[in-house]
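Q&A log
Question type: sequence-to-structure
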Amino acid sequence: MNWITNYVRPRINSMFGRREVPENLWIKCPETGAMVFHTDLEENKWVIPSSGFHMKMPARARLADLFDGGVYEDLPQPKVAQDPLKFRDSKKYADRLKENRAKTDQEDTIIAGIGELQGLKLVGVVHEFKFLGGSLGMAAGEAIIQAFDRALAEKCPLVIFPASGGARMQEGILSLMQMPRVTVMVEMMREASLPYIVVLTNPTTGGVSASYAMLGDLHIAEPGAEIGFAGRRVIEQTIREQLPDGFQTAEYLLDHGMVDMVVKRHDIPATLARVLKIMTGVPGTAASALLEPPHHPVPAEAGAEVPAAP
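Response status: OK
Response body:
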């Protein structure tokens, strides 16, 4: 046994050697290049403090931010057929699923929960973009449908936060079939007179934007979010024209009537609570008071009877 090699050198290396530093301690702002410490970014809801740029927010953090006190009931993850087409590109689809489950600690791209927002019960559904780009597959479609079922059973609103590149190519037509399935659930919410609100986050594209992400009763978008079907480069190459600046951003779509409002992330819970109370007719709100006809009592003449209030 060489004690210098096996004992002395490792001790010296541990004292003076280069230490491994996690790569994600500092996050670079895509807009300005400013560096932000990761804890500061998390405390600011993944919004760059200096520029206001909205980074992608983890799905779990999004649900916790939506509900009062971060308290909600997790809706169960549905079990579906794994890798139904036995798909393989540079690696097996089954291996990709394993990698993304380990990376995100989620069964698939969709998580959902039920809780209260300012005392109003609602179901929240969130896409996790880190899981295969938030793509829509069989498991994601079934999770969204079960979330709608719960909202219908509880007779409460549903709010969805899409962040997706579209349908999942590894599942082919089985992925595309989730679009009409979820669309049917949207119609069932409408028939039940229950609000369905979409909060469009960056990015919302492909088959998701072509179906349930654009079928809400109200469309709210985060600042700077990319929203569309095909990418800018694909469209320019197809039509052979230069697209205008800011094309497919939330602000551009607001100006052209495709979304109803652009709201900063910090203001989204309060905005949702306000509009949901209006849509559900919660008594005692300023909005519901505006909907009631004004009552102006007429002074009675001397000796006349005052009619009882209806």
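Response note: Residues 2 and 8 are 10 Å apart (CA to CA).
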